Amino acid sequence: MPAAREALLDAAYTALARRPWPTVRMVDVAAAAGVSRQTLYNEFGGKEGLARALVRREADCYLAGVEHALAAHSDPSERLTAAAEWTASAARGNALVRAMLTGCWSERLPTPTLSAAPAASAVPAQRRADGPLPSPGDLLAAVRDRAVAALSAVSAASAPSGPDADGADLAAACELVFRLALSCVAAPPGEGGTAELVRDALRRHRAV
């Protein structure tokens, strides 16, 4: 039931925005989604399964946003800048994304274990959610690798500041950008925001 599953995840996310996860009740999530409580249990198995599915969905949405940002410009530096701005914005606006990127899970949030859950769901999407969840290092590596792939695909001849460094330097530059974006979440930058900090860092690094 893809539609019911998404409605339940939306309802769970809305409930989490209003109250701490320990006080969120399954019956209320089902009612808000307009489905039966049995449907909720059929999809997720229980509250832990719902939490894992919610975390997995928000991680996937964040990574999809990174890919969208990386494709938004032709210039490699601007691609990285857009992805950094998205990262900072997503982490500021979504508590689950912030927790996944920083490893700081407050008592208001669900805290599913990152290792695979001992579950045997018949729902393919839930089997994926019950698998290992990304640690901050895993998520950073996934973002870095996506950025490296996107920038490597850009021809140096078609972009004034195309990649001219080896793979290790490019990966280091991409990781630097995303770590800088995360620092902007903890300490918001002043005039120019995340974009100017990233552009300045890339000018100094000269890897893209």
Account of the 3D structure:
The chain contains ten helices and no strands. It has 208 residues and is an all-alpha fold. The protein has a domain at 58-109 and 134-205.
Largest sheet, in brief, is: none
Q: Using the CA coordinates, give the radius of gyration.
A: 19 Å
Mean pLDDT: 90
Global outline:
elongated
Overall SS class:
mainly alpha
Number of strands: 0
Order of H and E elements:
HHHHHHHHHH
Give the distance, in angstroms, between the N- and C-terminal Cα atoms.
Answer: 44 Å
Strand content: under 5%
Number of helices: 10
Helix content: 55-70%
Low-confidence stretches: 159-164
Offer a few descriptive terms.
208 residues, mainly alpha
Write a brief caption for the model:
The protein is mainly alpha-helical and 208 residues long. It has helices at 2-18, 26-33, 37-44, 47-70, 76-93, 95-102, 124-129, 136-152, 167-186, 193-205. It has a domain at 58-109 and 134-205.
